[in-house]
Specification:
By secondary structure, the chain is α/β, with parallel strands linked by helices. Helix content is 38%, strand content 23%.
Length: 160
């Protein structure tokens, strides 16, 4: 099983970002560094240090994306109304009111849509794995570190 389960859309987005950063991004940062070097003394050159910091952050993101893509598995969308990878599930703990509901995206952190205010839950976590395949209204039990807990599925929606 791959370490990084991604939707096709997320895989495509990461591939495009990787290509952009390793081409245009690197050229742009190299130009910034070169322009800053031309300003003189590098020890007290704020533009130079800012450009080098930007380069370091960009190279870190390139390595991160490369890691995701090297060990990625594309998953098919879950059937409508079923908790699966790439779905946003609203749950409430047994005994709590629906007003205390929590929303989670089941899947990889890169799947998180910008338009939704949700936390990301790993499908391999105790609760995440218990929720997979559940439908609206289902009571799901999972093993927490100190007790068995129950949650009710209130809503399921696609993250895209």
């Amino acid at each position: 099983m791959a370490k990084h389960q991604l939707s096709q859309a997320t895989h495509d987005r990461l591939t495009a970002e990787f290509t952009d950063l390793t081409t245009r991004g690197r050229i742009q940062v190299a130009d910034k560094i070169e322009r800053a070097r031309e300003m003189g003394d590098l020890k007290e050159n704020g533009d130079y240090h800012a450009a080098k910091d930007e380069q370091g952050h960009m190279e870190g993101r390139i390595r991160q994306i490369e890691s995701f893509l090297e060990d990625a598995e594309i998953f098919a969308p879950a059937p409508h109304g079923v908790v699966g990878l790439g779905t946003i599930v609203t749950i409430v703990y047994d005994g709590d009111s629906d007003a205390d509901a929590e929303r989670y995206l089941i899947g990889h952190v890169e799947e998180k849509p910008e338009a939704h205010d949700v936390s990301v839950m790993s499908p391999s976590s105790p609760l995440g794995s218990s929720l997979l395949g559940a439908t609206v209204g289902a009571m799901v039990t999972y093993e927490a570190p100190k007790a068995k807990l129950k949650v009710k599925v209130l809503n399921i929606e696609s993250a895209k």
